[in-house]
Amino acid sequence: MGKVLCKLEGINKTFGTNHVLRGVDLELFAGEIVVLMGANGAGKSTLVKLICGYHTLDSGSMTLNEQPYCPSDPAGAIAAGIVTVHQSIDDGVIPDLDVATNLMLDQLTVAGAGLLVRDRLLREKAREVASNMGITTDVRTRVSDLGVADRQMIAIARAMAHAPKVLILDEPTSSLSATEAERLFQLIEKLSAQGVAILYISHRMSDIRRVATRIVCMRDGAISGVFEKTPLDYDGAITAMLGRAMTEVNIEPVNVGEPILEIRELKLAAHSLPINLTAHDGEVIAITGLLGSGKSKLAEIIFGLQQADSGDMQLDGITYKPDNAASAVERGVHLSPKDRSSNAVIPTFNIANNLSLPFLKSFTRGGLLSWTKQRDAADKMIDQIGVVCQSADDGINMLSGGNQQKVMIGRWLLEPCRVLLLDEPFQGVDIGARRDIGQHIRHSAPGRTTIVFVAEIDEALEIADRIVVLNESQIVGEHQNINVNLNALVAQVSGANNAVECQSQ
Amino acid sequence: MNNDRFLDYAIRYGFLLLLAGLVVFFSLLASGFASPRSAVFILQSVAITGILALGVTCTLVVDGFDLSIGSVATSALMLSAYSMVILEHSAVVAVLLCLAMGALVGLINGLLIVKYRVPDLLATLGMMFLLIGLQRIPTQGNSIATGMRLSDGSMAEGAFSESFLWLGRHRFDLVLERLVPVPVVLFLIIALVVWVFLEYTRHGRLMYAIGSNEKAATLVGANVNRYKIIAYMISGVTASIGGILLAARLGRGDIASGNNLLLDSVAAALIGFAVLGAARPNAFGTAIGALFVGILLQGLTMMNAPYYTQDFVKGVILVAALVFTFYLSARRGAGGKTSTNV
């Protein structure tokens, strides 16, 4: 192991009455990849924000290369050699400029840079950076025209341009496909071999297994465990993170009721085979597949946000062809979308108002909203799904990610529905909150059909009665969730098997 | 912790306390300030800007902006004069024409923004120019008054009807005889209606949701485009009401009046952000914001401050209110905000 690059001692940080960090000690060595694990609310993000200069610490000390280090702002941290790639990608790119300018932007602010921008040289340099990173897009494309995954790679590439000593990655794979993630991992390993210390934050066990050389767990604002003996003790890490051991979830597939939603000959893409799927009363179906496999498109078609190229749907035996979200909700089809902060959370509203938003009509009396009715419903839902908060009046942004997600799902459970669609319900949610949500969804399943769209196979296995695999916009496999052949499942997800072969399974 | 509590109170009640302090200050120092007549005078001075400000508040709620309100008001002023003086319409027809014009302008603004994806500031800026120009064309750039010479050489025979002028000039009895003018009553009614609409109906709640996270509002089934268009139509109609009241007060179609309407009403709506620490557009705050400006100007005038200092004073209040809103509230929010992603 290399020398200590960055050392944190006795870090304390308080926000108002909230003691977020309580005496955190952390050392980062050159050439290692430290995974920081912690439940939502454990203090990971605050710690990162201290290191990268967004917050100042209350007490404790930080050193970088044995020099005292206390950045007054993010620019100071970058100048000192600590570079962070944040979870929200759009912080890292400028959407209106082209890829080349984005990659080279920092060169433009260097003191002594020429007045005129030499585009050809800029593009040439940018191509070099891009090819080092394995980015294949034309550098003249505008970033706003790129997909999320490409933007993420560019954000990371930009961070690399600073030649960092310490690189912090906050949930970098949450919007990457498996191949893109693999590209990122290779890059991380390359950097680590060059002596960069990497602090990697993630909830995804598959990522952690892939990259970690050491695991540091946080709970309630303090370090609760460090694991560095190979092979790494992943179960021990989860226990340290949650303060209790996590048992395996055993799903007993239920006996399904009447069919509720029937999807017939529905084409997700012009060239793909049509999809046929029947979802029954009381059943939880997980639809899994890589990013871009058509999961989100299918969810959006069922919720009326997109129209299918061909095919039709039946809801309770009656033709179902929603034009928009409102007409889907009217028929009892509810969707909790992915990416809660951009698609679901109303940041200026409190918990109660966030919960009641889709069903304001039923909280209206004589044209005016009834606060007591909303309040009662909100209190009941908070209790049912176990949102940790002081009251329904708390601002939604006061909650940790997992609790926010519970509110976003609870929003759609306020009124009974026929079809509940959950797109990536466990995004940015720690394993404890994930189990809470999963359990509640399974308990409340009778009376509707539930379709969960998840990229992680673990999550599908934890919640579903039946797992359907999508690849390239068509169904390539279907499994009852009992003694699932994991190898076959993984092969189908990654598209290794021949599609026709799998369909007969 | 005590510090936090204090900051919280300061943000919540600071502006209202400041307002009360001003009233006490002027009452002691400017003789005649603390009288019903003076109070009504203040209300009258802010009634028209206040009505416009309430409209612009609705567009701010959906995260839009309406720069055309001033020109809608002056267009309504000219249109009502044109309708009565030159076309010799009755008061009712003139008022209906103006309201319809306001609604139409709001609809066009809304469609430009929603359908043609023109950014709100640019769409309403364009509309502002268009209306300023349009209102001058029928009269070749002249003001409209009874007896003016028309382009074909004849005289304008029509006149502002009494019932129309009643809107701007009548005063209701309250305690004192002929105390409360019609525009003040209308201002208070509109403020109440907009406040109830925004705070206590599901439509208002959805409009706030759209302003805060448009995508999320779409995904809960709100018809975002329709609500945005409605917001601009409300803004257009309230602006035309303001114009009607201005015309009724002046009694002529004065081409030069209403220059300050846009800036004054936008300022009132923005000052409103600071009231009760709302940090967002709200009808109560807007009404208080308009009053605040009115009280300060009236008090200073009664203490012999010259008229040309008025805009400067307004600017100072606006900047102070904005600092109040954005700096202090952000600091208060810091504790909560940082725990977002922890």
Structure description:
The complex is a heterodimer of chains A (505) and B (342). Chain A is an alpha/beta fold. Chain A has three domains: 1-81 and 164-246, P-loop containing nucleotide triphosphate hydrolases (Rossmann fold), CATH 3.40.50; 93-163, no CATH class; 259-503, Rossmann fold. Chain A has helices at residues 44-51, 74-80, 99-109, 119-133, 148-160, 178-193, 205-211, 234-242, 295-302, 325-330, 340-343, 351-356, 371-385, 401-411, 431-443, 457-463, 486-494, 499-503, and strands spanning 4-15, 18-29, 33-38, 59-64, 67-68, 82-85, 166-170, 197-201, 214-219, 222-227, 259-267, 275-280, 284-288, 310-315, 318-320, 333-336, 364-365, 368-369, 419-423, 449-454, 466-471, 474-480. A six-stranded mixed sheet of chain A has the order 6-7-8-3-9-10, with helices on both faces. Chain A has a six-stranded mixed sheet with strand order 16-19-20-13-21-22, sandwiched between helices. In chain A, a hairpin with a 2-residue loop joins β1 (4-15) and β2 (18-29). In chain A, α3 crosses α4 and α3 (99-109) packs parallel to α5 (148-160). Chain A is globular. Chain B has one domain: ABC transporter involved in vitamin B12 uptake, BtuC. In chain B, 71% of the residues lie in helices and 3% in strands. Chain B has helices at 2-29, 36-61, 69-86, 91-114, 120-134, 162-169, 182-200, 202-212, 214-219, 224-250, 261-271, 283-302, 310-338; strands spanning 171-174, 176-181. In chain B, a hairpin with a 1-residue loop joins β1 (171-174) and β2 (176-181).
Concise description?
The complex is a heterodimer of chains A (505) and B (342). With 505 residues, chain A is of the alpha/beta class.
The rough form of chain A would be described as globular
CATH T-level topology of chain B: ABC transporter involved in vitamin B12 uptake, BtuC
Largest sheet of chain A: 6 strands, mixed
Basic shape of chain B: globular
How large is the count of helical segments of chain B?
13
Q: How much beta of chain B, percentage-wise?
A: under 5%
Total beta strands of chain B:
2
What integer is the average pLDDT of chain A?
85
Number of distinct beta strands of chain A: 22
Global structural class of chain B: mainly alpha
The name of the CATH architecture of the largest domain in chain A is 3-Layer(aba) Sandwich
Our measurement of the CA-to-CA distance between the termini of chain B, rounded to an integer number of angstroms, reads 22 Å
Radius of gyration of chain B: 21 Å
